[in-house]
């Protein structure tokens, strides 16, 4: 169909387009009236949602925008509402999307939206969704103590092995060289040597008599006690260390619980962490109590409260008794022999020191690493690396979104579709037109006047 | 002559019924006693019918368009058979008789003479000789036939002669042409008449054939004075 012919058809059936446009506008209005829902949106940000800091424990994380797929979230919101709304209905109207912004941000922004025909209800539910999403996000992404321990178990085992190896090597060295607690023994020997030197000097000058120094049975008893204390020192040291570590955990967790109890703002987000910290504190207290009981039992069983101190005191006593006995029994000449023997012993002990220091340092390093790792595990379990107040921040509470743009788009589309449909209908009507041309159209198309239009006549007339 | 002239038939009473005119009544009353509708076999055209009014209006238009011209010949032209050329030619002629003398020129074709034209007449000698059915005479109307069997040149020559006679006597010469789709004589007669009244059937959907026909008439210097749309 030629353009001018089509234009004539449009002019002839001009009413088709306005009618269709009116119908489309009315239909769009009806659509908005029946289906339009208010949309309330809150703005939320999550710090470090994807990449934890270097060295931090990295659990499998559920990102914040994925929470709208969670039936658990919908179920919690439905429970909070308590008005018969089902979780399925909540889920279908809830969206959490990353906000697309032209401004570069290091932390993504999330839009939490809820749609409802009632604008006030949309606002209410949107805020509830934000609160529950925040709580659920923190719960999901907080590491379980069992998972944390399982994750660190290989490293803990390795460090425990290192500690055991170092301790075994050191103990073996001490046994082999009769050098248990070498520094103390060296100091004690050095002190004994000094006392011998002083005694010889006093005998040389006649300041003391050798008659009052003999005490043989007492020395033997003191030596037996010293040997007993030396045998107890290893077990005592282990029990004391366990007790000290448990006590340190108790102090740290008490501080953590106090911090969470005074956290602001307190709320559902804090509660899980507080409960976890309290549970760990209870456990640490139990460990501490057990260690204390074991240590107390050990002390009562062996009749000594501080094995290390008692042994040092006993060693000093033995040295003094040995000194007195030597002086009484041998006189000046014997002192010289004893001094020579002790000086040789001191020299031997001092020669052991470099190797002993290396072994002791290895043990100390391994124990420090193990202790640090255990502390880190406890910190992660206690939530120290996931500060709950800093993870999810609500930047804007829920507010109603404007749907003006959507209305403009729908009305515009309706008008455009109506226009095209109208023109198409006019075209089809023109193609399949069986309506006779009017007199005006005939005159217009042929360019001649119609002088008469002969109507249908009766048979008699024609 | 290859055609026969039918002289001066009268159908005055029928004209009066169809196209009553105050001035004509006085002239025709004297014939009313002599003639009757039955005699003329022309159905009465009621004065106030839409049919009669349209032809009266058409006659006035024709008079307005070519009445002042010395050449008052008018070809009634259409493309298709059955468009109503003879109907228009006859009734236009009848309507024009209220104002002036009219000569109606018929045209025989392969299918014979259109009965619309023959209705007021009857054969008197052979199939080409026509005379009014009524014995009464009248000087307002004559019917000429241009036989198909004649050559084109003879028909053109005869029409030219009739046009000259009508021009001389100040008569309207109304020529009923054959359908243009079946005979190019339609264009020939239209060219000889100078003026053309274009007839088309009401309800036409496609104007292209009409456009081409009117363009063709324009190339033949035949002036199309207007259109008659026929709903019969």
Topology:
The complex is a heterodimer of chains A (462) and B (232).
Chain A lengths: L2 H10 L3 H20 L2 E9 L24 H11 L5 H7 E5 L10 E8 L2 H23 L3 H33 L4 H24 L10 H46 L9 H32 L4 H75 L6 H4 E9 L3 H28 L7 H8 L3 E5 L8
Helix pairs in contact in A: 2-12, 3-4, 3-5, 6-10, 7-10, 8-9, 8-10
Chain B lengths: L4 E5 L2 H7 L3 H11 L4 H4 L9 H17 L6 E5 L7 H12 L5 E6 L7 H4 L2 E3 L6 E3 L8 E6 L5 H18 L2 E5 L8 H9 L1 E7 L6 H12 L3 E8 L2
Parallel strand pairs in B: 2-7, 2-8, 3-6, 3-7, 8-9
Antiparallel strand pairs in B: 1-6, 4-5
Helix pairs in contact in B: 4-5, 7-8
What does this structure look like?
The complex is a heterodimer of chains A (462) and B (232). In chain A, helix 3 (71-81) crosses helix 4 and helix 6 runs antiparallel to helix 10 (307-381). Chain A has 462 residues and is an alpha+beta fold. Chain A has helices at residues 3-12, 16-35, 71-81, 87-93, 119-141, 145-177, 182-205, 216-261, 271-302, 307-381, 388-391, 404-431, 439-446; strands spanning 38-46, 94-98, 109-116, 392-400, 450-454. The mean pLDDT of chain A is 81. In chain A, strands 2-3-1-4 form a four-stranded antiparallel sheet. Chain A contains 13 helices and five strands. Chain A has three domains: 1-36 and 403-448, no CATH class; 38-142 and 388-401, Bacterial polysaccharide co-polymerase-like, CATH 3.30.1890.10; 145-385, no CATH class. In chain A, 69% of the residues lie in helices and 8% in strands. With 232 residues, chain B is an alpha/beta fold. Chain B has one domain: 3-Layer(aba) Sandwich (Rossmann fold). Chain B is built from nine helices and nine strands. Chain B has helices spanning 12-18, 22-32, 37-40, 50-66, 85-96, 115-118, 152-169, 185-193, 208-219; strands spanning 5-9, 73-77, 102-107, 121-123, 130-132, 141-146, 172-176, 195-201, 223-230. In chain B, strand 4 (121-123) and strand 5 form a beta hairpin. The termini of chain B are far apart. Chain A binds chain B through residues 433-434, 436-437, 439, 442-443, 445-462, and chain B through 43-46, 49-52, 54-55, 57-58, 61-62, 65, 84, 87-88, 116, 197-198, 200, 202-205, 207, 210-211, 214, 224-232.
